[in-house]
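tokens incoming
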């Protein structure tokens, strides 16, 4: 078999059987050739996500199955979503906005959010979704940094979080208000405007290098960065959706992330639509029974969620999952934080399939390293680099980088060249340039590679603990703690110590039915010591009802550490309410 045939096979069956041969044969040019493109070498995300499917006769397939908070529901077909995107693009054009304009969305997961995202891209403008639970300050800061021209929001969010400052934003041109009621003064009501607009819009002639999205990072390690992404990213979204999430046309797919975070856009809008699946959009927040109900009643086949949610399900126990029919599930994946081995296996026990952990960042735009469908999962690992991705573990040596040996901890690095790599941090050229050294993109995460080429996450570079000459990754310690029957979640930091340099301190949230006591503390410490050895196990354990997390569900260890050391808390604009 010659390589193009193998390659074609992967794409036409979309069954990601990623043999070494297939991995080696893959090229991004070939991946691009599976898409439509625009005349003269152009490329536009909205065209690939919607219009080409309609042109190919799939307009009647449901693109979005929307589940409202109040149990109302709505199906939007590919043809309907494509028409709504065109209407939204027309509304923007009617107000004098031209390609290059920056459109921000601040709203819950309602169908118009998806029409706005795709309509903006169709019009050749740049889209930035913001998480609706943000306070006024983070919203303002992000619109200022991104020089937003348009804001699409609801009347309630406008009054509560936006009205007091937005008129002072020099770049602002238009405010669109979603609700049916008359829009506040100076704003335009979106629904009547869309209803009056044409459902035909000629897609802007964007190229693969034109700006498409600005995404702010989660702010886990410090001030959020505005990562710039281009239309060419859709090539990666198409391929990685097949390879890492096993998406096949017609699948019922549910990504639980909000589009305010990059996962909710790359894999909650673009990748699923490009791969022509039917995606579930749930307007409501996490709720155990609701989620189990959705998996069962909507017959979800592919499910992409996050460790924080998986740990909440685990906390409620296996009994809570009994009586549901999960037989439609085919593939489970997780991203956002390392997934503890306990969580991987729990998927197998409760859903009949393990969770497939995969790794990527806002900056990489798409999944880079994954436990794929064809692999034997190694619980606790990130898996292997996807086709077209070269990853390495590197360490500083003088002015340059060297490759680490198998088993050696170093920084996780990627060879630039894949299509969804960010093109800039807005207004932060120096911070951006620092990410590229010696022909590598440096991720800021520490990891190691085993002799079989499988990657294992160790921790954020900032979170590594150095104790008596040992390098300790918080993930390893946290995963061991979670195996104790009383522990639901754990966060581990290093605190200064005169003899050891640093010692490990753990913050722990308990499972229901367990009470805080000195005896329990001793029991958990003893358990960890047995698993990890005395040098690595926590010296001290404190109990918390909840751990500080970003709104995208990531534990903010730097905040625990700052509080521990009495240092300033730094940027906490993405922090969810927590207890000190
Ligand atoms: P900031 O860059 O502002 O500090 P952030 O890094 O949390 O925030 P994101 O881009 O949303 O912002 O998250 C990417 C990071 O999340 C990765 O660099 C990694 O640290 C962590 N992460 C994501 N998926 C995984 C995974 N499967 N295993 C381990 N870590 C993961
Ligand atoms: Mg980051």
């Amino acid at each position: 078999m010659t390589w193009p045939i193998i390659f074609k096979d992967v794409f036409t069956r979309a069954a990601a059987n990623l043999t070494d041969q297939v991995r080696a044969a893959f090229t991004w040019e070939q991946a691009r050739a599976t898409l439509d493109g625009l005349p003269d070498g152009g490329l536009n995300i909205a065209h690939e996500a919607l219009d080409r499917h309609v042109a190919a006769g799939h307009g009647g397939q449901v693109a979005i199955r929307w589940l409202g908070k109040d149990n109302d529901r709505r199906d939007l077909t590919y043809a309907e979503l494509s028409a709504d995107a065109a209407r939204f693009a027309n509304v923007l054009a009617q107000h004098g906005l031209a390609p290059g304009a920056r459109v921000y969305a601040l709203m819950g997961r309602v169908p118009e959010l998806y029409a706005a995202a795709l309509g903006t891209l169709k019009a050749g403008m740049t889209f930035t979704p913001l998480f609706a639970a943000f306070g006024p300050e983070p919203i303002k800061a992000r619109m200022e940094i991104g020089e937003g021209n348009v804001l699409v929001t609801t009347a309630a969010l406008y009054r509560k979080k936006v009205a007091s400052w937005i008129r002072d934003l020099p770049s602002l041109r238009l405010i669109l208000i979603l609700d049916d009621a008359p829009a506040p003064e100076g704003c335009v009501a979106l629904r009547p405007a869309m209803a009056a607009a044409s459902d035909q819009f000629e897609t802007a002639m964007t190229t693969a290098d034109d700006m498409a999205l600005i995404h702010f990072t989660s702010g886990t390690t410090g001030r959020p960065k505005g990562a710039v992404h281009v239309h060419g990213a859709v090539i990666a979204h198409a391929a990685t959706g097949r390879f890492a999430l096993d998406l096949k046309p017609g699948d019922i797919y549910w990504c639980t992330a909000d589009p305010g975070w990059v996962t909710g856009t790359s894999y909650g809008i673009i990748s699923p639509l490009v791969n022509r699946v039917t995606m579930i959009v749930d307007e409501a927040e996490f709720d155990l029974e609701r989620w189990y109900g959705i998996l069962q009643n909507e017959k979800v086949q592919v499910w992409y969620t996050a460790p924080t949610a998986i740990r909440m399900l685990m906390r409620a126990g296996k009994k809570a999952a009994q009586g549901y029919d999960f037989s439609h599930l085919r593939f489970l994946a997780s991203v956002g934080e390392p997934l503890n081995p306990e969580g991987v296996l729990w998927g197998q026990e409760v859903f009949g399939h393990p969770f497939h952990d995969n790794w990527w960042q806002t900056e990489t735009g798409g999944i880079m390293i994954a436990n794929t469908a064809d692999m034997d999962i190694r619980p606790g690992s990130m898996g292997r680099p996807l086709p077209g991705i070269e990853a390495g573990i590197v360490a500083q040596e003088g002015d340059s980088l060297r490759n680490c040996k198998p088993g050696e901890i170093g920084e996780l690095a990627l060879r630039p060249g894949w299509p969804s790599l960010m093109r800039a941090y807005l207004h932060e050229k120096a911070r951006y340039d620092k990410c590229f050294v010696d022909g590598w993109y440096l991720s800021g995460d520490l990891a190691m590679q085993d002799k079989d080429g499988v990657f294992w996450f160790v921790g954020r570079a900032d979170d590594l603990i150095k104790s008596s000459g040992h390098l300790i990754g918080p993930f390893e310690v946290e995963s061991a703690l979670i195996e104790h029957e009383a522990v639901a979640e754990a966060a581990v930091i290093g605190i200064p110590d005169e003899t050891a340099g640093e010692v490990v301190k753990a913050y722990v949230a308990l499972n229901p039915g367990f009470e805080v006591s000195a005896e329990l503390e001793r029991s958990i410490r003893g358990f960890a010591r047995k698993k990890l050895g005395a040098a690595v196990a926590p010296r001290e354990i404190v109990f918390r009802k909840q751990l500080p997390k970003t709104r995208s569900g990531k534990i903010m260890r730097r905040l625990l550490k700052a509080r521990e050391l009495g240092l300033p808390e730094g940027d906490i604009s993405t922090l969810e309410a927590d207890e000190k």
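note: The two ends are 61 Å apart (CA to CA).
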